[in-house]
Every structure is written in structure tokens, then in C-alpha cells.
TrEMBL record:
Its EC number is 7.6.2.1. Residues 692-945 form the P-type ATPase C-terminal domain. SUPFAM superfamilies: Calcium ATPase, transduction domain A (SSF81653), Calcium ATPase, transmembrane domain M (SSF81665), Metal cation-transporting ATPase, ATP-binding domain N (SSF81660). It comes from the Eukaryota. Its main location: membrane. The chain crosses the membrane at residues 78-96, 278-300, 320-346, 723-744, 756-776, 806-825, 845-863, 875-897, 917-939. The gene is ATP8B2. Belongs to the cation transport ATPase (P-type) (TC 3.A.3) family. Type IV subfamily. This is Phospholipid-transporting ATPase. It comes from Suricata suricatta (Meerkat). The active site is at D394. It is found in: Membrane. GO terms for molecular function: ATP binding; magnesium ion binding; phosphatidylcholine flippase activity. Residues 19-84 form the P-type ATPase N-terminal domain.
Length: 1051
């Protein structure tokens, strides 16, 4: 249930009843108020609720459990702040982010709830805040105002109760839509009549279907069907309409806008899922280490401990070796917990946030024409972009600019649109061909171009099939026309394809001029003809067609239909197979050229049949349940059994239809991205931003998909993999030293390092360098990523971070920890200071091991970094400097004088690091830890380099050659006089070389079909250069689905 939802009504409501001007009647149903609440917290609930939500995370709960253990003196050998400092830091960062987000939600809620609206109360209009509007109230809206709630349109300033709305906040579409009041209420325009209106609406309960509404108005003993065309939804804006009145049906959380604002499904990447599994394995490994050390403690206590208490007495005597081992187990769980530090999860989110900003800031994915940048609408899926195996597009329109052009048509078996030369060869469209001259038509759109003059000749000669073809285009649509000046027509179409088809009919002499709810006026070859509009059988994604039924001035009733060929051809009577076969050949030809096709058909209806059918349609529209199914059945009946005749027109029901195909470059409106898609990519095209609103990533041209995947996706995957490998390595190298030390300290759960070093290791000394690598690292430049799509394959095959790579990192970390402990241990066993004193004290050993560790992991990240920036240098050298600064500060006189109980070892760091033996030990440890890594990488580069290595090497060779040529360039000798005066424009040679000033013989739009595995990469490699007309994401392989706009996504 959405926040603020009336739970009782949400569960129990089966139908909605709302009576106009009767708050007392409506209140007994306890409908939700119009106040919305999207915020989650208030001042009192923020801290407890937010902490409760954060501790739903297993990691946070785990570290809270460790903190509780550290408060038990018999268990913990570490101070409580070693766990609470990083835990509080993580909780605080998340809490600040959540509080900031909720603050803006509060501001948004207050802004919306306090908007003003005119409400009819006690016979007069009064200003009311939106939050005080109730179901059953009558509201007056004025031009450019937002709709306060879901309303039933009662009347408007426009004739026939029409009004225009913009639904961008609902579905992203910026084109205007038409809504109409039912005739019985359209005359209720004055306040006195509206105040007496007592109609009752009975309709479906609240739901999230934006394009569906089913209800009935009960008034004066009659019932009137209501549909989506009679409603105004919250979030819409009234446009080009002076005023309108509406009855509130749904308010607040019951409105369709709020019903669609539920929480989206949280998507996890494959690395997230793998990391969760690996973390569980690490927990298991941690428990195993704890058990081994606990058994060792029990044995040691039994064999030695009872005689050793004189030297190390218990605060309270522990007589049982088993109990001692039990306590030791929990102590070691606390000490060794850093194998999975809490900073891991925060660091991952910071890296992903940085990758998202890189996508948003990429100027090469910015569309200057629309001023639209690429946008990462999620921060959790960036590395998944580098592992896509399949790309699915909802339609070919996604791969194009979605600019609709009437291109070709087939009418009564003849194809129009191609131009042929004198030899009968198809001519190429270009400079030498002149477009058709439409000057005979004063209402023609001058921007419309068509190249085949034979179609216009057929229209002028009065060919009946051609006339019926364009008559259908001018009548069967939902376009609105506006005539600002005499002869200046502007069409407002809900989709670009309808606009293109109506514009084509307009230029060929069939000009759609105006419409009312009951009529359509078309100028046919200069003569105004008004048709009576009897019914509109609207389009939807299931029917895939739309129809209109009109009566012409002679009284003949005709149904015009247009739709998908897969749907309409099955509804034609096969009385003209030859014509159908010819038309099917044309269809295949058009499809082969990459055009989108549409089938047009019509048939005559006799008066008696239409009256019977209209009555059945009325009954279906008044049905209280299954209204849509009943209407679909009625529509199916009348749109069936259409007949194709090759010549002439007949009369009577079911006879005399004509057939045609019209092509445009775009399919019907798309749907939102499939919820099963791993990544949804929306393309903001010609139809608004539906896909953008439902997608994870968005941009304005399809061609940017290549850069999103091959550059940003691949880099994000590479960086995250390198980050995780290094992170696990450095923490195992850090933690496992405690494990080895346990065998030399009687398994007493003592730590090698100072407790402040344990606290700061992951949040100060090693956090920033690995973050810099995770955010900025590159293996090859972006140009090489685009030139070598094969570089993308490691992500598809999970080669850079998998279980094998994880165990390699762990093994390297354990190897480093062994050397980190035993080399200093071996040195300190026999070493002495310069003054002859024993060097092997615990504090000096701890400083030596800690310093060796920081230097080794810093050298390792330097080797892992493939792309150095000033930030990388600053973080690595700065972290080393911070370590030594803090180390000397903690062993200084100043801190000891202020906190004598906390900083007891005055001068230890200075004394230890002043010994040459210590630095020789650190150097030896560093070399022995790093040398195998260097040897392995050298052998790999020499014997088995991968493509990334090869590309980097070629880049280095190319760079050295360029430097060598520059170095050998001869110096300039003495100057000479010149009479150069050649008139030449800069850049013209580049223009010629680019070929942009030359007429192309053809433009071939390459297909982009999904292929299994990495086959599509080969296709991209073969077509690296962008094609001129191709702007621009499922799986049981990783995938991305991509809708158009385009409205919805790597859908």
C-alpha cells in the first residue's frame, strides 16, 4: 500500500460511488482525502525508523553484534571504538542521505498539498487547498492549471464539452490530448446549474491503469456510460481551454498518479549476487579460524595455562579449559572480523556514484539538437553494463530517429513511391530528381516531399481506389486540427505516424479540416465534405488497429479501418486472392527496404445492421463488469469479414471494400520496458519520455548505446573488479597476521597491531587509494575501446571477478600475511638495537609489521593502477604520509601528557624506525611480497598476453614512434621570401576527404538483430563508424532491453 494510503478502503473497496455536491453521503465511505504523503519520516520517527531500516541489512546487524561482544570484558581484547567508529560512520552517512532525500519529499508534499483550487461549496466557488478537496466535490479548472484529483469532466468552455490536456507528468508525452464531457452534462456551464447537479458516479475501484476507466453516471433516472475519454487525471495540465468543471472521483493516494508511484523493484548486479555468496564463505572461513584458535586455546590452557597464571593471571579464574576456549572463540571472531570490513559496502556505493556522474557528464553522449544529455537514473547497475550478452529492442523504430515520412503505398495492386529512369531502372532519390509539385493545392504542407508523380496523376484523374485510399487516411485517425490563419493548418497528433499519414492525405488533395464530437470535415479536391462520425473503435496494443464508422452526405454508412497486416489480413474475405498476393509481395518488398507497413481497409454497412450493432455496443459500454472484453467482442464482429475487390466499389453490407498499404518509418506506440530486463535503456525520441521515466539509463540517440556499453560499461566492470580483488587482498593480508600471531601468544586473543591502527587501517590508510582506482582506472583509452569491441568479452564471460579470481586474491593475501609476520618475527628473534639493547619488544614488532603492511599494499595498488591521475598520486602518497604522521603523533609526548592511559608508548615509533635493521626488514618484506606478482605479470605479458595487453602495447609503441619522429624532425634553416597568395578556405580539404559534400549513391541502414553470446560484438566491430541515420536495453544471459523514445527501455 503506498504511503498515506487508506488501508481499509484499499482492501475492502469493490466499487467507487461518488455523489456530486454531497459530502455527507460520500464521507460514510471513508474515502482517502486529497492530501498526499510521500515522505517516510518526521522529526520524532526519523532516528528509530531509519536505524531499524538500516539494521535490516545483514552487514550492519553483524557489526552491531560484534560491538555488543566487545562490551563483554571476558571476550573482547579490543576497545569498543575499533568497531563503533566505522559502524557509526557508515550509519551516519546513510542517515544523512536518507534525511536529505526525505526533506525534499516533505517540501514537495507541502508544495503540492498547499496548491489552491476553486471548489463549488454551498452554491459558490471557494478557494481551497488541494489537501482539503474531497471525493464528490465539483472543481473549476482554468487554462494552464494542474488537475487536483482524478475528475469526471462535466463541462468546458469549448463547444461540445471538449477540452485539451497535457499528460507529461503521467506518461511523459508532451503532445496534447482531447477529453470530452458526456452530452448530458456538457451544458452544465453556469454555477447555479452545477450547484443543483446531484448525479452519482458508480465506477471501478482505484487502480493504476492510466488508459482505462470504466463507470456509469446515474442521473435523473438514466444511466450514461463513462470511459477514459471523459476523465481528467491528477497531474495533467489544462491547455488551450479557458475553463472546465469536473467531479472528483478519486482523491489523494487513490488517484492513478499516486497508484503508479509505488516502489520500483530493486535490481542487483551479478557482482552483487556473487559478492553476497563470497561474503558468506568468508564468514564461514572466519568461524573456522575462530574454531581452530579456540581449540588451540583450550589445549594450551589445559597443558600450560594452569601453570602460567602466575605470569598472566585471569581477572577471574577460569577453571575449565573448554570454557576458556569458548571465550577465546568469540574474542577471535572480534579480532578477525576485518576480513569483511564494513567500509566495503560504502566504498562500492561511492564508486558506483562516480561512474554514474561520468555517464551524466559525457559530452560525447550529449545531443546538441535536443539539448539532451545521457542520464544514469540508477547508481546500482553500472558494472552490469559491462556484462551485457543480449540486446533486445522493442521495435526497429528504436534504432531510428522516429521521424515519420509517408514513403510508399500499394493501392489496388499497384505500387507507388519508386521513380524510374528512361531505361526502366529505379532512380536514386537525390539532387537530380524533383519532388512532386503540390502547388495545385493551396492547403498543402510545403515541408512534405514525395517523388513519384504517378500517384498524384492517379488522384487528379479521379481513380476511385486512390481517392478512397486518401479518404480513409483523412477520416480514420484521432488528429486535432487548428487553423491559426486562413489556410494555415496545424495538426496535433497523439503519435507521429498519424500526423504523417494525415499530412500525406492533405497534400494529395484530401485535407482534414476540422472535427466535432459528431462530425469530421474534409476538403476533397477543393470541395468541403462533412461526414457524420458515428463511432470510433479505438486503437490498443491488443487490437493493433483502429476503425471509424462514418455516414457520408449521401447517407451511406462506411467503416474505415487501419492496422497491422498480421491482424487485418486475417479479417478480409478472400474474394480477391490475386490482389492479396500482389499486395503481399509489395509488403515484403517494403519490409526488405526497412519500411514500416500498415494495412488499410473499408467496407459498407447497411442501416439496419448498423442500428443493431450500435445497440449492442451501447449495452456493452454500460456493462458493470468485463466492459472492455464485451466491447472488444462487439468491435471484432463489425471489423471482420471485410472483402477485397480488385476493381470498382459495391454497395451493401460486407461488400465493396478497398485495400491499401501505407508505409512509415515507425511502429505503433511502444510499451514500457519488460520488468524482467536486467537493464532498461530509454531513448527520448519524438513521442515524449515514457521510456526515460521507466528506464535505468537514458539518452537521445540509439548510437550512444555503443559508447554506453563499450566505454562506460566496460570501464565500470573493470574498475569494480579491480577494486574488489584489491580490497579482499589487502584485508586478508591485514587480518591473517593475527591468526599466525595466535600460535605464538598462547592463543590469548592478543592483537599484533595497535588498536588505533586497527581502527584507521580501512577508513584512513587504505581507503582513498582504492577508491581512486575504482573510480578513475582505465586499461585502454576510450577510442581503443570503441575500435576493439573484443575487449568487451571478459565482462560477458565473467573473467575479471569470479570465484577463481577471488581465491587467487585470498591466496595472495594469505601469502602476504605469512611473510608480513614471519620475516619480522625471524629478524626480531635475534636482533639488537644500535646500543646493544634487545630489539624484540612487542611494540617495536607491531610498528614494524604495520609499517611493512602499509607500504606493501601501497606498492601493490601502484602496480594495479593502469591509469594514473593527480588524484591517484595524491591519495597514495597522502595515505602514506598520513600513516607516518599519525604514527609519530600517537607515540609523542604531547598525546601522552593529555591521555596517559591511552597512549602509553612514548617515543616507540621514533626509536623503532631509527634502527637500520627495521628498514632492512621492511624492504625485504616488501620485495619478497611484490616480487612474485611482478614475475607472474611479466611472464603473462611475454607468453600469453590478452587483447587488452596487446592494445596497450601497440598504444605505447605508437606513442614512442611519434616521439621519435618529433625528435628527428630537422631544424628550421634560414628563412626565405614567399609570394604565396593563393585564395583557399580553411577546412575544405577535410570536407572533401570526409565525403560529406558528395552525393551518396545509397544509404543502407544495417540491421541490429540480437545474437547469442558475443556475436553482436563482431557486428559492432565491422560497423565501428556511425551510420548517418541511426541515432538513438532480460536475460538468462545478462541482457538489456531497449524501447523507443522512446517510451521504455533496455526495456
Amino acid at each position: 500500500v503506498p504511503w498515506g494510503q487508506n488501508t481499509a478502503s484499499f482492501v475492502a473497496e469493490e466499487e467507487r460511488r461518488a455523489r456530486a455536491n454531497d459530502r455527507e453521503y460520500n464521507e460514510k465511505f471513508q474515502y482517502a482525502s486529497n492530501c498526499i504523503k510521500t515522505s517516510k519520516y518526521n522529526i520524532l520517527t526519523f532516528l528509530p525508523v531509519n536505524l531499524f531500516e538500516q539494521f535490516q541489512e545483514v552487514a550492519n546487524t553483524y557489526f552491531l553484534f560484534l560491538l555488543i561482544l566487545q562490551l563483554i570484558p571476558q571476550v573482547s581484547s579490543l576497545s569498543w571504538f575499533t568497531t563503533i567508529v566505522p559502524l557509526v560512520l557508515v550509519l551516519a552517512i546513510t542517515a544523512v542521505k536518507d534525511a536529505t532525500d526525505d526533506y525534499f519529499r516533505h517540501k514537495s508534499d507541502d508544495q503540492v498539498n498547499n496548491r489552491q483550487s476553486q471548489v463549488l461549496i454551498d452554491g459558490s466557488l471557494q478557494q481551497e487547498q488541494w489537501m482539503n478537496v474531497r471525493v464528490g466535490d465539483i472543481i473549476k479548472l482554468e487554462n494552464n492549471q494542474f488537475v487536483a484529483a482524478d475528475l469526471l469532466l462535466l463541462s468546458s468552455s469549448e463547444p461540445h464539452g471538449l477540452c485539451y490536456i497535457e499528460t507529461a507528468e503521467l506518461d511523459g508525452e508532451t503532445n496534447m490530448k482531447v477529453r470530452q464531457a458526456i452530452p448530458v452534462t456538457s451544458e452544465l456551464g453556469d454555477i447555479s446549474r452545477l450547484a443543483k447537479f446531484d448525479g452519482e458516479v458508480v465506477c471501478e475501484p482505484p487502480n493504476n491503469k492510466l488508459d482505462k476507466f470504466s463507470g456509469t453516471l446515474h442521473w435523473k433516472g438514466s444511466k450514461f456510460p463513462l470511459s477514459n475519454q471523459n476523465t481528467l487525471l491528477r497531474g495533467c495540465v489544462l491547455r488551450n481551454t479557458e475553463w472546465c468543471f469536473g467531479l472528483v472521483v478519486f482523491a489523494g493516494p487513490d488517484t492513478k498518479l499516486m497508484q503508479n508511484s509505488g516502489r520500483t523493484k530493486f535490481k542487483r548486479t551479478s557482482i552483487d549476487r556473487l559478492m553476497n555468496t563470497l561474503v558468506l564463505w568468508i564468514f564461514g572461513f572466519l568461524v573456522c579460524m575462530g574454531v581452530i584458535l579456540a581449540i588451540g586455546n583450550a589445549i594450551w590452557e589445559h597443558e600450560v595455562g594452569t601453570r602460567f597464571q602466575v605470569y598472566l593471571p585471569w581477572d577471574e579464574a577460569v577453571d575449565s579449559a573448554f570454557f576458556s576456549g569458548f571465550l577465546s572463540f568469540w574474542s577471535y571472531i572480534i579480532i578477525l572480523n576485518t576480513v569483511v570490513p564494513i567500509s566495503l559496502y560504502v566504498s562500492v556505493e561511492v564508486i558506483r556514484l562516480g561512474h554514474s556522474y561520468f555517464i551524466n557528464w559525457d559530452r560525447k553522449m550529449f545531443c546538441a539538437k535536443r539539448q539532451t544529455p545521457a542520464e544514469a537514473r540508477t547508481t546500482t547497475l553500472n558494472e552490469e553494463l559491462g556484462q551485457v550478452e543480449y540486446v533486445f529492442s522493442d521495435k526497429t523504430g528504436t534504432l531510428t530517429q522516429n521521424i515519420m515520412v509517408f514513403n510508399k503505398c500499394s493501392i489496388s495492386g499497384r505500387s507507388y513511391g519508386d521513380v524510374f529512369d528512361v531505361l526502366g531502372h529505379r532512380a536514386e532519390l537525390g539532387e537530380r530528381l524533383q519532388p512532386v509539385d503540390f502547388s495545385f493545392n493551396p492547403l498543402a504542407d510545403k515541408k512534405f516531399l514525395f517523388w513519384d508523380p504517378t500517384l498524384l496523376e492517379a488522384v487528379k484523374m479521379g481513380d476511385p481506389h486512390t481517392h478512397e485510399f486518401f479518404r480513409l487516411l483523412s477520416l480514420c485517425h484521432t488528429v486535432m486540427s487548428e487553423e491559426k490563419n486562413e489556410g494555415e493548418l496545424y495538426y496535433k497528433a497523439q503519435s507521429p505516424d498519424e500526423g504523417a499519414l494525415v499530412t500525406a492525405a492533405r497534400n494529395f488533395g484530401f485535407v482534414f479540416r476540422s472535427r466535432t464530437p459528431k462530425t469530421i470535415t474534409v476538403h476533397e479536391m477543393g470541395t468541403a465534405v462533412t461526414y457524420q462520425l458515428l463511432a470510433i473503435l479505438d486503437f490498443n496494443n491488443i487490437r493493433k488497429r483502429m476503425s471509424v464508422i462514418v455516414r457520408n452526405p449521401e447517407g451511406r454508412i462506411r467503416l474505415y479501418c487501419k492496422g497491422a497486416d498480421t491482424i487485418l489480413l486475417d479479417r478480409l474475405r478472400p474474394s480477391a486472392n490475386e490482389l492479396l498476393n500482389t499486395t503481399a509481395d509489395h509488403l515484403n518488398e517494403y519490409a526488405g527496404e526497412g519500411l514500416r507497413t500498415l494495412v488499410l481497409a473499408y467496407k459498407d454497412l447497411d442501416e439496419e445492421y448498423y442500428e443493431e450493432w450500435a445497440q449492442r455496443r451501447l449495452q456493452a459500454s454500460l456493462a458493470p463488469d468485463s466492459r472492455e472484453d464485451r466491447l472488444a467482442s462487439v468491435y471484432e464482429e463489425v471489423e471482420n469479414d471485410m472483402v477485397v475487390r480488385p476493381r470498382g466499389l459495391g454497395r451493401g453490407r460486407g461488400r465493396g471494400p478497398g485495400l491499401g498499404r501505407v508505409c512509415d518509418l515507425r511502429p505503433p506506440p511502444p510499451a514500457h520496458p519488460p520488468p524482467a530486463a536486467h537493464i532498461g535503456v530509454g531513448i527520448s525520441g519524438q513521442e515524449g519520455i515514457q521510456a526515460v521515466l521507466a528506464s535505468d539509463y537514458s539518452f537521445s540517440q540509439f548510437k550512444f548505446l555503443q559508447r554506453l556499453l563499450l566505454v562506460h560499461g566496460r570501464w565500470s566492470y573493470l574498475r569494480m573488479c579491480k577494486f574488489l580483488c584489491y580490497f579482499f587482498y589487502k584485508n586478508f593480508a591485514f587480518t591473517m597476521v593475527h591468526f599466525w600471531f595466535g600460535f605464538f601468544c598462547g592463543f590469548s586473543a592478543q592483537t599484533v597491531y595497535d588498536q588505533y591502527f586497527i581502527t584507521l587501517y580501512n577508513i584512513v590508510y587504505t581507503s582513498l587509494p582504492v577508491l581512486a582506482m575504482g573510480v578513475f582506472d582505465q586499461d585502454v583509452p576510450e577510442q581503443r575501446s570503441m575500435e576493439h569491441p573484443k575487449l568487451y568479452e571478459p565482462g560477458q564471460l565473467n573473467l575479471l571477478f569470479n570465484k577463481r579470481e577471488f581465491f587467487v586474491c585470498i591466496a595472495q593475501g594469505i601469502y602476504t600475511s605469512v611473510l608480513m609476520f614471519f620475516i619480522p618475527y625471524g629478524v626480531f628473534a635475534e636482533a639488537a638495537q644500535d646500543n646493544g639493547a634487545q630489539l624484540a619488544d612487542y611494540q617495536s614488532f607491531a610498528v614494524t609489521v604495520a609499517t611493512s603492511l602499509v607500504i606493501v599494499v601501497s606498492v601493490q595498488i601502484g602496480l594495479d593502477t593502469g591509469y594514473w591521475t593527480a588524484i591517484n598520486h595524491f591519495f597514495i602518497w597522502g595515505s602514506l604520509a598520513a600513516y607516518f604522521a599519525i604514527l609519530f603523533a600517537m607515540h609523542s609526548d604531547g598525546l601522552f601528557s593529555m591521555f596517559p592511559n591511552q597512549f602509553r608508548f612514548v617515543g616507540n615509533a621514533q626509536s623503532t624506525l631509527a634502527q637500520p635493521a627495521v628498514w632492512l626488514t621492511i624492504a625485504l618484506t616488501t620485495v619478497v611480497c611484490i616480487l612474485p606478482v611482478l614475475a607472474f605479470r611479466f611472464l603473462k605479458l611475454s607468453l600469453k598476453p590478452d587483447l587488452s595487453d596487446t592494445v596497450r602495447y601497440s598504444q605505447l609503441v605508437r606513442k614512442k614512434r611519434a616521439q621519435h619522429r618529433c625528435a628527428r624532425r630537422p631544424g628550421r634553416g634560414s628563412s626565405r621570401r614567399s609570394g604565396y597568395a593563393f585564395a583557399h578556405q580553411e577546412g575544405f580539404g577535410e570536407l572533401i576527404m570526409s565525403g560529406k559534400n558528395m552525393r551518396l549513391s545509397s544509404l543502407a541502414l544495417a540491421g541490429f538483430a540480437p545474437r547469442s553470446g558475443s556475436g553482436w560484438i563482431e557486428s559492432l566491430r565491422r560497423k565501428r563508424s556511425d551510420s548517418p541515420g541511426s541515432p538513438g536495453g532480460g536475460r538468462e544471459g545478462r541482457g538489456a532491453v531497449l524501447p523507443r523514445h522512446c517510451p521504455s527501455g533496455f526495456s
